[in-house]
Amino acid sequence: MDSMTSVLVSDESEVSGKSVVAPSSLRKVRSPIGTRTRLPAEADTGRLFTKQDAASRARRHPMTHRSVGRERGVWRSEEVCLAQLLLQPDAAFACVAQLGELGIVQFRDLNPSVSSFQRKYVNEVRRCDELERKLRYLRREMKNEGIELAELAGSEEAHMTLPGDVIDLDVFSTSPPRLALPNIRLTEPFEKLEKELRESNRNEETLKKNHAELIELKHILRKTQGLFEEMDQRRARFVEGRNSTSSHPDEPPLITTVEDDEAIHSREISLHILKLRFVAGVIQRERLLAFEKLLWRVCRGNAFLRTADIDDDGSNPNSSESADRAVFIIFFQGEQLQIKIRKICESFRAHLHPCPETPQERREMSIEVATRIEDLNKVLAQTQQHKHRVLVAASKNLRMWLTKVLKIKFIYHTLNLFSFDVTQRCLIAEVWCPEAELDLVKQTLKRATNESGCQVPSILHKIETNQTLPTFHRTNKFTRGFQNIVDAYGIANYGEINPAPYIMISFPFLFAVMFGDIGHGVLMLAVALFFILKEKQLETANINNEIFQTFFSGRYVILLMGAFSIYTGFMYNEVFAKGSPYPIGVDPVWNLAETNKLIFLNSMKMKMAVLLGIGQMTFGLILSFYNHKYFKSDLDIKFMFIPQMLFLSCIFIYLCLQIIIKWIFFSWKAGSVFGFSYPGASCAPSLLIGLINMLMMKSRPSGFVSENGESISQCHLNYWYPGQELLEKILVCVAVCCIPVMLFVKPFLQFRRHHKMVRSVHTSRNLVRIYASFFQS
C-alpha cells in the first residue's frame, strides 16, 4: 500500500499552481532495489509550485535541465526528466498500478482547470470512498470487540492491485465493466458483512433494551411485593397489639374500645373501598430528590411516595446503568392526580411499568419475568457469539481489503490527472522520472500492458521542457532521517548541493555539545541499538503510534546523537550530571568556586558555541560558492558570495581568531604579549566590549601598563596588539561597504538585464510592423 501511493502524488501545474497531494501517511515509496526513496521535493512536502516560483528559480538559475552536469548521487539531487506517456484506456489501470508499485515517478496534473467533481473517474473515486467507509465501519466494530487485524501474508507482490479488481467497483453502477479480467470481488463481501453486522447490532440493541426493561420490572415487582408485605405485617402487629390490650381488665373498657375501633377502621379499609391507585417505575437516583419535591408540591401532599435502591445481583449485563437507579411507587386517589403524576414521571424520564395489585398476580408475573430474562440472556449470548465469529472471519482479510481499496482509489485519482487525445481513444500523461530509471519504467509499462491483454503497446518518451525540475534525493534507511531534517527546514533546488550528508555529522555533534553526558548518551545509544536490531520485527508489527514512529524512523539519528553525547560527556566529565575525578576534560573543582564558577564555564561554553556556529556558517557559504560555480552563475559569485564572505570574515571570523589567540597567549601569569607588558589575568582583553568598540570606532589606548610600570585602569579594554586600531577600522569599512553590494547590486543588474530583454522584444516587434507595413504598401 505504501509503495503504491508514491506514483499517485501529483506535481503542480505551472498554469494554475494547484496541487493534489496524497496523505502524508501514504508517501513512503519503494525503490527498485528494495530500499526506500523519497519522492521529488514538491510532491513529498505538499509544497505549492506556482508560476512565480518557476520564474524566480529560472532567473536564479538561467538554464534548463540539459545544461546540468553529471555530478549526481549523494551530494546532489538525481537527474530528472519530463516524460510523456501514451496509454490505451484498457491498459491504463494496470500501468498506473505497476508504476505505483515501482514508486519512482511523479505524475503531473494535465487538467488544472477542471474541478475535482468534473473529472473522468470521479464516480469510481466516490465508490472507493464508499467501500472505504464500510471498511472503517468493520474496523470500528472489530476494535469494539477487541479483535486484532491479521497481518498480510506473503510478499508485497502477492497483494499488488491487478486490473481485475476494478470489476468490483462496477457493482454499484449499471454500466458494463470496462475490464474483463476476473479477480477477487471486494464489494460483495463488504455489502454482505455490513448488512449482517448492522442487522446483528440492531437485534442486539433491541434485545438489550428488552432485557433492561425486564430487569427493571423484576426489581419493581420485588420491591413492591416487599412493600405490601411490610404493610401487611404492620397491620397484623397492630391487630395483635389491640387484641392483647383488650384482654386486661384494669383498663377502662369503653374509651379504649372506641379508640381502638377507630384506629383499626382507619388502617384496615382495603384499597378497593378507598379506591386508591398506584403507579410504579424506575428513575435515576440523582433525580430522585427533585422528583419527590415536585411531586409533593404538584399533588399538594395528596400522594404517598415510597422508594428503594436497586441492588445489582449480577444478572443485568448493563449493571453499571442499573446501579444508579431506584424503584418508586406512588399511591394516590383520583384521575386528575394520575394524569399529573404520569406527566411528572415523563418529564423526569422515569420508566413506568405495570404492577398487579394482588400478591398472587405479582408472584405469577415475577415467575414469567424471570423466565423471559433467562431466555433473553441465551439469545443475547448467541447473538454476540455470532457477531464475534463474523468479525473474526472478516479480520483475516480486512487489512488486505483496505490495502486494495486504497490502491484502487489512488489509481483512479491518478487517472484523473490524465488527459485524452482528440480521438478520445488514448490517455496522455506526463511524469517526472529519474533519467537513470527510464529503462526500468519502460519495462514496467511493457509488462503491465501485456498483463492487461491490450494489443497496443504503451509509449514513453522524453520531452523537452524549460520548467523547473523537482528535486529527487535517493535515500536509504540510514540517510532518510537526516534528509527529513533538512527537508523540514527547506528543500534544495534542483541540482544544488544536498546538505544531508554533512549534517549526518554536524547535527549529532552540535546536539552533543548541548546535551553532552556519558550516562544519558549510553541510554540513547542503547535505545537506538534496540530499534536497529529489532527493526524488521518492529516494521512488520505496524505500530501506528505517532510518537513511536517518530523515534523509530529517526533511530540512526538517535544512534549518532548518543555516540557523540558520550564523546562530549568525557569532555564535560559528566555522568548523569555527576562529576568525579577527571582523566580529561573540564575540572569539576570549578563547581566549588563561589564567584568564578559561572564566569569560567559560561565564558568557555559561549566562546565554543561562537566558534562552532561561525564555522558552520562559513561552511554553508563555501557550499553556496560551489552551487554558484556549478550553475555557472558569475553574478552570484561576484555580488553575493564574495561580499557575504568578506562581511563574515571582517566581523565574525575576526572575532573567532581573537578567541583562539586569547586562549593561547593570555593566562593568569604576568609576561609579555605581542610586545606589550602583560601584568596578569585582570588585564586579559574583553572581546565582547572590544567588538562593540570596534563597530563604534571608539579610540582607546594601547597596552596594559603605563610608562611607570603601573597597570592602566580598565586595561582589559585597551588595544592588545600593534596595529589593531588601523586593522579594525579597515575591517569595519570593508564590512559596511559589503552591505549595499549584497542588497542592491544583484537586483539592479537583474532589473537592467530584464529591461534590455523587454526593450529588445519591443524593438523586434516594431521592426516586424515596419517591414509588414512596407511590404503591404
UniProtKB/TrEMBL annotation:
GO terms for cellular component: plasma membrane; vacuolar proton-transporting V-type ATPase, V0 domain. Keywords: Coiled coil, Hydrogen ion transport, Ion transport, Membrane, Transmembrane, Transmembrane helix, Transport. Residues 114-148, 190-217 form a coiled coil. GO terms for molecular function: ATPase binding; proton-transporting ATPase activity, rotational mechanism. Pfam families: V_ATPase_I (PF01496). It is found in: Membrane. The keyword Transport applies. It is a multi-pass membrane protein. The chain crosses the membrane at residues 509-533, 554-572, 608-626, 646-666, 730-749. GO terms for biological process: vacuolar acidification. Essential component of the vacuolar proton pump (V-ATPase), a multimeric enzyme that catalyzes the translocation of protons across the membranes. Required for assembly and activity of the V-ATPase. PANTHER family: V-TYPE PROTON ATPASE SUBUNIT A (PTHR11629:SF63), VACUOLAR PROTON ATPASES (PTHR11629). Belongs to the V-ATPase 116 kDa subunit family. This is V-type proton ATPase subunit a. It comes from Diploscapter pachys. The lineage of its organism: Eukaryota, Metazoa, Ecdysozoa, Nematoda, Chromadorea.
